[in-house]
Amino acid sequence: MDDEHGSGREPGTEDAEPETAYELLRRGQTLLEGRHHAQAAIVLERADRVEPGKASILEALGRAYFNSGQHEPARATFDRLLQLDPSEHYAHFALGQSLKRLGRREEAGTHLRLAVALSPESRLYREALARLGSGPRRPPGLPSRDQDGSPPGGPPPGGSPPVGQEPDADQPV
């Protein structure tokens, strides 16, 4: 007797088409909106394999990496995005934020200044550059601190965030 599911696929999926890059992107964006950043990165990596070099996929993938704490993959992804479009202000901002988290403050400053220059009306970009400040440079691996002594985008030790500062202000969301 023949096996009716001898194709090796799960029952009911014999005619299923593989997801398109667009479908994977939409699913990844939905996961990002739900703050499921690590899961979004997995789905968006698949989209990037299906259609490498698509700016919309790279931006979403970089955000997923950054917001799941994967700052080196975020840096590399935003760098790829800038190779496609060197004038993309958000990519400069996000690359700057990733570099800041990696302890590479001088490089971060370069990209944050470019983001501000390309989009001077952006308060988010100006504030990120101001928070980077001209404070002491820390060796890579040590967490950086904002000018008020607080972790980047977070409240000062033992206190609440300064007035007007949002706790997630450093995230490229």
Secondary-structure map with pairings?
Layout: H1 21-33, H2 37-50, H3 55-67, H4 71-84, H5 89-101, H6 105-118, H7 123-132
Helix pairs in contact: 1-2, 1-3, 2-3, 3-4, 4-5, 5-6, 6-7
Task: Describe the structure in your own words.
With 173 residues, the protein is an all-alpha fold. It has a domain at 21-132: Alpha Horseshoe (Serine Threonine Protein Phosphatase 5, Tetratricopeptide repeat). It is 53% helix and 0% strand. It has seven helices and no strands. It has helices spanning 21-33, 37-50, 55-67, 71-84, 89-101, 105-118, 123-132. Helix 1 (21-33) packs antiparallel against helix 2. The longest helix has 14 residues, at 37-50. The termini are far apart.
Task: Offer a quick outline of the entry.
This protein has 173 residues and is mainly alpha-helical.
Rounded mean pLDDT is 80
CATH architecture of the domain at 21-132: Alpha Horseshoe
CATH fold group of the domain at 21-132? Serine Threonine Protein Phosphatase 5, Tetratricopeptide repeat
Query: Outline, from the CA principal axes?
Result: elongated
Please give the CATH class of the domain at 21-132: Mainly Alpha
- The count of β-strands is 0
Classify the secondary structure makeup into a structural class: mainly alpha
| First-to-last CA distance | 56 Å
Sheet having the most strands: none
The fraction of residues in strands falls at under 5%
The helical percent reads: 40-55%
Q: From the alpha-carbon coordinates, what is the Rg to the nearest angstrom? A: 20 Å
Order of helices and strands: HHHHHHH
CATH homologous superfamily caption of the domain at 21-132? Tetratricopeptide repeat domain
Low-confidence parts: 1-9, 144-169
Count every helix, treating DSSP H or I runs of 4 or more residues as helices. 7
